[in-house]
Amino acid sequence: MDKSTNDAVSSSTPTSPSASTPSPPQPSTPSFNDSLLSLFGPTAPSLSKTTSYLMQRLATYSCHISFLKACRDHSFIPKGLRLTSPIPSTRATDIMTRASTSLLTERLNHYRQRFAHSKQNYDDNLRSLHLLLSPDYYQKLLHLHVKKSCYTHKKQLLKHKKKFDALLAEHDTPFLSPYAALPTFDIHTPTFRGPLFTTKPITKDNTTKTVINLSDHPLTTAQTEVLSLGLKFVPTPTTDPTPDLAPLIQNVTKQLGDGMESSVTHQVTSVLSDYDPQRDTTRDNLTKQQRSALTSLKKLKSELRFLPADKGNATVVLTNQQYIDKVNDHLSSGSYTLLSSDPTASITNKLNNVLKKLLKEKKIDASLFKQMRNLHPRWPQLYGQPKIHKPGAPIRPVVSFYNTPLEALHKTLSHILKPLTQNHLRLKDSLDFRSRFLASLNPSYPYHSSLDVQSLYTSCDSQPSPSSRTLSPPP
User: Fold this and answer.
1) pTM value > 0.85
2) Do residues 124 and 50 make contact, with C-beta atoms less than 8 angstroms apart?
3) If residue 397 lies in a helix (H) or strand (E), which one and from where to where?
4) Is 386 helix (H, G, I), strand (E, B) or coil?
C-alpha cells in the first residue's frame, strides 16, 4: 500500500469525539522537598539536603579509609602519593619511599578526622530532623538518604577495587585482594514516588514556653524564633571572624602568668588557623528572615536584656530598667552591706602573704604556691536570672567568681577536699534524693511536705558562734 492509499484510508476513517478533544493536563506530583517545605517550613529541606550530603560524604570517606588501610597493610603506595627523587641513588630512593609512606599515613589520618567531623555534624542534623519531622516523614527521609549513600558507597568500592587490582598486578604479589569477596550488584538510581499524602502538617510552636517577653516591646515571629534557639546558639559566621578574635585573644593572654601566655597563644592560633571560610560559611543555619531578625535584636541591646531563666530552659526578655529595678530590689533586702572601698587588692595581698609564709615554712611546695594565687584578679560580678515560676519574676542572684582573688584557692581546695565528700551522707543529684526518699517512706505518715527558705545563704550567719570558738580539738 502506497502513501496516497494510506492518506485516503485515513481521511475516510471517522474520528471519534474523544480523539479530537485534547485531554486535560494532569496535575504534577509534588516532589519530596516540596512536601517538606509546605508541611514543615524552609528549615526541613535545608536540613534534609545537608544530611544527605553528609551521609554521602561518610560513605566516600569510609571507602577512602578502607583503601588506604589496605595499601598500608600490603606496603603499597598509591600512585598519587609516590615521590620521585631527582638524585639517582639508593639512599635518596629510600628517603622518598619513607616520605611516601608517611604521606600515606597522614592521608589516612586526614580522612579519619574528616569522617569524625562529618559524623558529628550528621548526628546533629539527624537529631534536628527527628524533632522537626513527623515519624513517617522522618523514616521516609532516612530511607532515601540510605539509598543514596549506598549508591555512593558501591560506586566508590568499585573504583577502589580497580585501583587496588592495578596495584596487585603492578607488584605481582600472591596477596589476596580484600575486594575479591565483593558480591556482584546492580547500581540503581534511587527514586521517590511522590509525597506521603496520609501525613498531616504538624506545627510545633514551643516559642511561648521558651521565650518569655516581660517587657512592653513587642517581638516579631522571626525574632521569637531566633530567641527560641537559645542564648548559646551560634549562627554561622557570614565573614571571617579570625581578624576580630586575634586582638581580643591577645588582651586575654596578657593577663596570664609567665610561661602561659605563649603556650595558650600557640594553641588558640592553631585552632583559628583551621578555620576555612569556604567550608564554614557556605551553609547558613538561619533563614533570611531569622538573619534579619537577629540583626534587629542586636540593635535592641541598648534597650532590652535577654537573660536565661532560673528554671525551665527559657529566654526572658526584660527592659534595662526592669532588670536594674529587680537587682536593686534584691540588693535592698537587707542582706547586703555597701562597702566604702574595693577590697580586691587587700584580699589579694593577704592571701599572698599567707601563701608565702606557708611556702617559707615548707608546708606547701612551689607548684602548689603558684596554683593557689591569682596574679591579675578582679572583683566578683553579680548578675540575676529571672525566676519565671514565681510571682513577679524576681531574680536569682548569681555571683561569678571567675578570675577573683580566691578562685585559684577554691579550685585547689576543692580538689583536695573532694575525696572527703564520697560518703553515704552526700546526695549526688535529684535522682539520688528521690530514690532515698522513696526508700525511707514511712506508711504511718500519710503526708509529706517540703519547705522553701527565702534567701537561704544570705540568711545564714557567716560569723562563727561563741560555742564553736571555745571547742577544743578531739583527743
Assistant:
1) no
2) no
3) strand 395-400
4) strand
